[in-house]
Specification:
There is one protein chain. The protein has 144 residues and is mostly helical. The protein folds into two domains: 2-67; 73-143, Orthogonal Bundle (Diphtheria Toxin Repressor, domain 2). It is 78% helix and 0% strand. It is built from nine helices and no strands. Helix 3 (22-33) packs antiparallel against helix 4 and helix 6 packs across helix 9. The chain is elongated and about 60 Å long.
Amino acid sequence: MQLSKALVELSDRLLARLDLPAGVLDAVMEARRVRDPSPKNRALRVVRIALRAADAKEIQERLRDVHAPPRHAAEESALERWRARLLDGGENELGAYLAAHPEADRRRLRQLVQSARRAKEGERAEKLRALTRALSASFGPEQA
């Protein structure tokens, strides 16, 4: 429900940057025209139905990318290097990361690294994204 409401309240410029599927975009544009609360709820329901037919997770990630400030290339590459080190290394690499980033959650990172290593090919991209998000949460631009 929050994704549909966020899409309806988004500006035209940001909505265009999301590159939404035609069905979702039509439902969003129609919901924007409705002003009364009860019909607005029905219009939001139509947007949610359209999102089910599309890839809602991908749209939500694009929305997050539109709202998030752009990352610097150095920070991005440092993040990728840490992710590769954690995936290739063992407990020592995790310890090195935690020494550099003491605010990180050891147990959560260990679980994410193990699940990314064990993931089958279809699930691997999702597991790697989850690991990258967790690393990014404890990674600041001053550490790049």
